[in-house]
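Structural prep section.
Before we set up the soaks we want a predicted structure of the protein with manganese (II) ion in place, mainly to decide which crystallisation condition to try first. Input record follows.
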Amino acid sequence: MMLSDVMEDYLKAIYQLQRGDDERVKTSAIAEELDVTSPTVTSMLEKLEDRSLIDREKYRGVTLTEEGETVALEVVRHHRLLEAYLTEHLDYDWSEVHEEADRLEHHISENFEARVAAALDEPEVDPHGSPIPSPDLEPPNTAVGNPISECGEGDTVIVKEVADHDPEILSYLADHGLEPGVELEVLEVAPFGMVTASARGSDTQVSLPEDVARHIRVALPAEAE
Amino acid sequence: MMLSDVMEDYLKAIYQLQRGDDERVKTSAIAEELDVTSPTVTSMLEKLEDRSLIDREKYRGVTLTEEGETVALEVVRHHRLLEAYLTEHLDYDWSEVHEEADRLEHHISENFEARVAAALDEPEVDPHGSPIPSPDLEPPNTAVGNPISECGEGDTVIVKEVADHDPEILSYLADHGLEPGVELEVLEVAPFGMVTASARGSDTQVSLPEDVARHIRVALPAEAE
DNA sequence: AGGCAAATTTAGCCCTATCTAACCCTAAAT
DNA sequence: ATTTAGGGTTAGATAGGGCTAAATTTGCCT
Ligand SMILES: [Mn+2]
Ligand SMILES: [Mn+2]
Ligand SMILES: [Mn+2]
Ligand SMILES: [Mn+2]
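Run finished without errors. Recording the tokens verbatim:
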């Protein structure tokens, strides 16, 4: 099946927006994610449905079919392998990789994918700590760790994943020592979702508004593998 | 100026087909190079002319403007840097690189280009011996060496460039020791353009039909830098 | 000069991906 | 049971890239 890069982006967006297993993803959510208008999304959803890549209930949203999920996982694998390769071998900073990978993910061959994976020794996570789907594209188990906003005050935790895409925010976080693998002390969790924490070894502390904190997942040292 | 990847391919094709400096490239030549029909070429040429990327005399062909040439050189630089990187760092064989580079050339950022060039230490030629345009995109001087078909029988020469794109032919040539840098003895130049030669150190000889030989450029050892 | 074959352009159509404007559904509130 | 706000879908337009079939132009040959 020949899919355009745009179709691949839609499937990837649906994959990433689909939280629960039968939770339907809404037109407006896709429109916002991909920065297009909702009629544009509707017409694309019709095409994806024609190709059996999604199940659709008009007016109520879509879910990926198994085939659609496989395509999405393929694109995500490309994306995350590229992010890892760019940081490991081409001197990219983790704040720069997303944009580059977001274009290249649609244009590399299976051969390229395999060589990159080999050069990285089959990595399991990308520079943000997000899991890289395996070559067989089986749906990976759910993410490791929990959102940092669910921590209690005073908890000491290990950062597992920083799934933000904004270069400015990522640079800011790195400047404050907040990267995967770092040990963190949670100082305050405000009722409106703001989290204040301090990286182990640094005196400075960071305050993270809810929409930033949402993308940070952590685990208790005990749970840390 | 936002150019589509298809437009970039047209400009690159015109660049590579334009032998002399004011030699006009014909519709049919572009059509054949890009594997599209001539009406398709005509309509694209109109668009490129609108954007001042080519000069066009209806029914008589086109030439690149300075601006168009710069775009073409940019694409060629991307292409050849990618070919070099894929062979040097990702274990590609020179017979495989063309297809991959031909897609990726349109999708890498200037940042990616710079990192790849740095990783390769600013290379001057790609794996086929073709010159990589410099970062400032000044038109490079003409190719080194001369077509092997212009050799005399008995000449001993150094292979400078093997500008073929066909993977099968490239594998065949490599199997017979015919690669850039190799010393070659020209055994026979037949009147219909077929060249027979033997790589230094190998007993076997290769016979190259005219359309293969045309892409191979060589220099006398004296001229060799 | 006239005629003809080959190359090129024009005309008219298709498909994708996007938009805006207009219309329609759903679900929650009255 | 209505209303209504907030999506979602339909309709119609535009722009890019492509094709086939039908004109045109060129350039060469007689
Ligand atoms: Mn993408
Ligand atoms: Mn793949
Ligand atoms: Mn190309
Ligand atoms: Mn460039």
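Observations: The domain at 5-64 of chain A is CATH 1.10.10.10 (Arc Repressor Mutant, subunit A).
Flagged for discussion at group meeting.
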